[in-house]
Amino acid sequence: GLLIGLVTGTVLAVIAEAVFKIGSGQENPGGWGLTVPARTGSSFSIPDLSLVGAVGFDFRKDGAITVVMLVFSLLFMNFFDAMGTFTGLSREAGLADSKGNFPRLKSALVVEGVGAIAGGFTSSSSNTVFIESGSGIGEGARTGLANIVTGLLFLAAMFLTPLAEIVPTEVAAAALVVVGAMMMTQIKAVDMSRFDVALPVFLTVTVMPFSYSIANGIGAGFVSWVIIRALSGKSREIHWLLWIVAAGFVLYFARGPLETLLLS
Q1: What are the two backbone dihedrals, phi and then psi, of residue 73, each rounded to the nearest 5 degrees?
Q2: Which of 16, 42, 68, 259 has the fewest CB atoms within 10 Å, i.e. the most exposed one?
Q3: Which residues, other chains included, contact 2 with Cβ-Cβ below 8 Å and sequence gap of 6+?
């Protein structure tokens, strides 16, 4: 499956680098993107934990408005990234209920929030749910045991960073393309014959990859859906919560100009 493809692709990349000396993309325009598939030195390393606990805001330097906008942006992005990922993965795994909703969503969001806080405390990326979990689902993962195994492997990878860095992004990206193709099968449940549905779905699907953000895609879908429904004379059919979410996304998208305006 995907694991075999990753291993095979990495081995081929290592051979190609050893034979043709392709090198880094910084040195060679046609080189490898982020990591060069070649091992130098030891395969083991001690993780650098010097940034653990290095958190905090300097309100005097950054300003309260900047900090508030930053926290709002991170919260909005993290929450809707998680919601979109939860929904997509649960449907792909066949775990969604009859209405297509993620089961025990409250518990999942609590874990998501704790993970995000823990990630920030360690000065690392947010420990949020990742769409890459779709690769595990594609291999048959359906229970929390898969997450435990993944966590243990990540823990081991902390001490095997030089070895893990051999896997080039070009190989990992190929696996994610396969995962994306599998998840696109969920679009068959959408009634694309209706323009008021098709346009928000189209914007959601296209904005995500082009902006490198699930939250941006969901935001584009929310805002466009509310606008289309309102202009179609169906504003009374829009739930009040959707108005609030759409307005929040408008603020989220306009946070850059707003910060400039408020700080000027």
Answers
A1: -65, -45
A2: 42
A3: 135, 138, 139, 175, 178, 179
| Tokens (6 digits) for 212 | 């490198």
Q: What tokens does 39 get? A: 């091992």
> Is 0.70 topped by the overall pTM?
no
- What the block records as the tokens of 106 is 């409250």
pLDDT tens, residue by residue, 231-250: 998 898 899 989 998 998 89
Pull the structure tokens for residue 32.
Answer: 């490898």
Between helix 64-93 and helix 214-231 the angle, nearest 10°, is 90
* Burial class, 152, CB count within 10 angstroms (exposed 0-12 / middle 13-18 / buried 19+): exposed
Domain boundaries, the chain: 1-20+62-186, 190-257
Angle (deg, nearest 10), helices 64-93 and 255-263: 170
Q: Which residue has the tokens 């958190």?
A: 55
Alpha-carbon span 55 to 120, nearest angstrom: 7
Residue 211's SS3 state is helix
Residue 223 vs residues 204, 231, 250, 252: alpha-carbon distances, Å = 10, 12, 7, 11
